[in-house]
């Protein structure tokens, strides 16, 4: 009984080490392709469009209501203590530094990361990756590097867009639910939120994009076992990305100003 | 042209090829047959350098392929065109782009209009004129095979490997595909290796047969000598008997 338990724990640890090792190996190979940059521009452009432009509606929707939720939660206390001058600052601070990059990162992982894993996994199962290799094309250079770059750039840009929309949402919800005028919201926001708050969140967004990219690509290109394997890989990629986002968020919150 | 000497390969700790010794002369046409999971596709992929054998020697035109690092395998792979079992058409590219893809990669300087013209010419050769702008998902199984063949042959590589060129196709389409492959072989005098489970159709197409069973060669010789082979596995498989070692 105890032996079985230990064996299961050992197998899980070995499996975890293998996955982390695989991700680090992939990172190494991506870096080799980037120094100096040698990757496919057409494929990068296609991914920027697919991952970024097509994510705009869901990001806008998420961000708008995220800003609103921040104000809904605060509205009770704002009314109780008459702290209307803090609403703009509270919403901006929370959205820019934490809620914006975190929620958008998770949303991005669910929409783009899972799609990426499924796409790469299907390419493995249908021998498209072998097809590329048979044509002397390095799949890392042709498929992975453009995806990694696109995800980093696009999550960064989408977070900027999301931040703006979330603040607009917070201002509108504040006006309707907490009787905070737009002018009061703007004064509170502009006087208390600093550039460092914005950059703090944007650095996080870039790191989250990198994490989503690496995990989704790793689990995609290591798929084994047909359609069932693709499903398992998508699941693993989403879980790993979420874990990576939460852990790195914790570390970055300490490390960044 | 291609020489395998004592090739052995393991995948996930399981032997897939054992002591495969096989010599392919330029211009010859080989068929690889054998029961499922006997290592046929793995052998074909090993010849392209997609798998690295654990033991043995593999040379293509005198070049030791497994000894080359991945980036240096380019020159050897350019001598080969391969049709994969699942066709391996890139879903993110249209039919014309799929066909011209190897050409564009090998000749980055080639003008776009020439790439388009070559792809159209090759698609016409496989009977798919008018399908240039379709996506792979819009094609039937036979059409996908033909696009795969067009892509494998567009660079006029001296070695062509077809993995199950007629799998899942009706007899008429099968005959058409083999006629097409014969036509292409005659035009370019290429060396051909074809894997198929459709033994009668394959035997009409090839000069030589390699029979694999559990990663080992059971027969390697002229197609005409297959019937006379007394190996019990080959004997049973070729005659389609239910009684025997298989």
Q: Could you walk me through the main structural features you see in this protein, from its secondary elements to its overall organization?
A:
The complex is a heterodimer of chains A (257) and B (246). By secondary structure, chain A is mostly helical. Chain A has helices spanning 2-34, 41-51, 56-81, 87-125, 128-134, 139-177, 182-192, 195-221, 226-255. Chain A has one domain (39-255). In chain A, α1 crosses α8 (195-221), α2 packs parallel to α6 and α4 (87-125) packs across α7 (182-192). The longest helix of chain A is centred in the middle third of the chain and has 39 residues, at 87-125. Chain A is elongated, with a radius of gyration of 21 Å. The termini of chain A are far apart. In chain B, 34% of the residues lie in helices and 25% in strands. In chain B, the strands form 2 sheets. Chain B has a 6-stranded mixed β-sheet, with helices on both faces. A 4-stranded antiparallel β-sheet of chain B has the order 2-1-4-5, with helices on one face. The longest helix of chain B has 18 residues, at 171-188. The relative contact order of chain B is 0.17. The mean pLDDT of chain B is 88. Chain A binds chain B through residues 46, 122-123, 125-128, 130-131, 133-138, and chain B through 45, 48, 50, 70-71, 73-74, 77-78, 80, 82, 84-92, 101-102, 105.
């Amino acid at each position: 009984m105890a032996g079985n338990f230990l064996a299961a724990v050992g197998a899980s640890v070995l499996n975890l080490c293998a996955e982390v090792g695989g991700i680090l190996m992939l990172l190494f190979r991506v870096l080799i392709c980037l120094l100096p940059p040698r990757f496919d521009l057409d494929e990068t452009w296609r991914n920027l469009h697919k991952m970024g432009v097509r994510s705009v509606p869901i990001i806008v929707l998420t961000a708008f209501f995220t800003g609103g939720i921040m104000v809904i939660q605060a509205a009770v206390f704002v009314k109780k203590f008459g702290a209307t001058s803090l609403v703009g600052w509270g919403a901006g601070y929370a959205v820019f530094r934490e809620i914006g990059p975190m929620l958008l990162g998770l949303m991005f992982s669910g929409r783009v990361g899972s799609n990426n894993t499924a796409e790469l996994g299907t390419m493995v199962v249908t021998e498209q990756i072998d097809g590329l290799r048979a044509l002397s094309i390095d799949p890392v250079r042709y498929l992975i590097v453009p995806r990694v770059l696109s995800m980093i750039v696009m999550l960064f840009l989408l977070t900027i867009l999301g931040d703006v929309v979330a603040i607009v949402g917070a201002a509108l919800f504040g006006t309707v639910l907490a009787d905070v005028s737009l002018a009061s919201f703007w004064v509170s926001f502009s006087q208390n939120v600093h550039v460092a708050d914005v950059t703090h969140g944007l650095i996080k967004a870039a790191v989250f994009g990198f994490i989503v990219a690496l995990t989704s690509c790793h689990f995609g290109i290591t798929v084994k076992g047909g359609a069932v394997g693709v499903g398992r890989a998508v699941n693993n990629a989403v879980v790993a990305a979420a874990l990576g986002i939460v852990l790195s968020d914790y570390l970055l919150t300490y490390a960044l100003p | 042209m291609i020489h395998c000497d004592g090739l052995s390969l393991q995948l996930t700790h399981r032997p897939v090829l054992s002591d495969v010794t096989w010599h392919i002369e330029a211009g010859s046409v080989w068929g690889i047959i054998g029961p499922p999971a006997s290592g046929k596709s793995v052998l074909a992929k090993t010849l392209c350098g997609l798998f690295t054998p654990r033991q043995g020697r593999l040379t293509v035109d005198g070049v030791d392929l497994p000894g080359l690092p991945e980036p240096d395998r380019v020159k050897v792979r350019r001598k080969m065109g391969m049709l994969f079992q699942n066709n391996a058409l890139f879903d993110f590219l249209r039919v014309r782009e799929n066909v011209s893809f190897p050409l564009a990669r090998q000749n980055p300087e080639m003008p776009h209009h020439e790439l388009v013209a070559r792809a159209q010419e090759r698609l016409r050769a496989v009977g798919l004129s008018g399908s240039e702008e379709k996506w792979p998902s819009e094609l039937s199984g036979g059409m996908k095979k033909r696009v795969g063949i067009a892509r494998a042959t567009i660079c006029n590589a001296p070695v062509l490997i077809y993995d199950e060129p007629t799998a899942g196709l009706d007899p008429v389409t099968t005959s058409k595909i083999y006629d097409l492959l014969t036509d292409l072989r005659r035009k370019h005098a290429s060396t051909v290796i074809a894997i198929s489970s459709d033994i009668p159709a394959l035997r009409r197409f090839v000069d030589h047969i390699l029979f694999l069973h559990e990663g080992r060669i059971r027969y390697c010789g002229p197609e005409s000598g297959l019937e006379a082979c007394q190996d019990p596995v080959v004997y049973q498989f070729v005659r389609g008997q239910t009684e025997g070692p298989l």
